[in-house]
UniProtKB/TrEMBL annotation:
This is Rieske iron-sulfur domain protein. GO terms for molecular function: 2 iron, 2 sulfur cluster binding; metal ion binding. Keywords: 2Fe-2S, Iron, Iron-sulfur, Metal-binding. InterPro entries: Rieske_2Fe-2S, Rieske_2Fe-2S_sf. The keyword Iron-sulfur applies.
């Protein structure tokens, strides 16, 4: 598949994630998230580094029906993505769960490439659909306000 532009690298925050939709080979629409992998050096406010972004399917390895980014960005602590449900931490660069109930598990990665300040989806297995979450997923929306332990 051709590379498809997702967004500008400068629009990916360092303390949260960007959610977007993809389709896979079976035409199923899924959500993925862009995550900054390193602090961005700034020069007058503009990003200097053009790498430092990774991409993962948007679900926790503890309960796979739970989204990391529930539509407004997943929380991040010390450069790791945090699952709001039970506090699992995932390393931004490897996707490995470093702490929590699924410690040692890995998020599913999608290949992205940064060119001229834009982030492109360059994964042969997925096609870009659009920015934002899947609108019709009522199931997980309900669970976002229902923290279980
Ligand atoms: S669902 Fe993510 S830590 Fe439990």
């Amino acid at each position: 598949m051709d590379a498809e532009r997702i967004t500008a690298l400068s629009d990916v925050p360092t303390d949260s994630t960007v959610c977007f939709r993809v389709t896979d080979d079976s035409d199923e629409t899924q959500e993925a998230i862009l995550v900054r992998t390193a602090p961005v050096a700034t020069d007058g406010g503009d990003p200097v580094s053009e790498d430092g972004v990774s991409c993962w399917l948007n679900y926790c390895q503890h309960f796979t029906h739970i989204k990391l980014d529930k539509g407004s960005g997943a929380p991040m602590r010390d450069g790791e993505v945090v699952c709001a449900n039970h506090g699992a931490y995932f390393a931004a660069d490897s996707g490995r769960c470093t702490f929590g109930p699924c410690e040692g598990a890995y998020l599913t990665d999608l290949e992205v490439t940064v060119e001229d300040g834009d982030v492109y989806l360059t994964d042969d297995d997925y096609a870009f659909v659009g920015l934002g979450p899947v609108e019709t997923d009522d199931c997980d929306r309900a669970s976002s306000s229902n923290v279980e332990f």
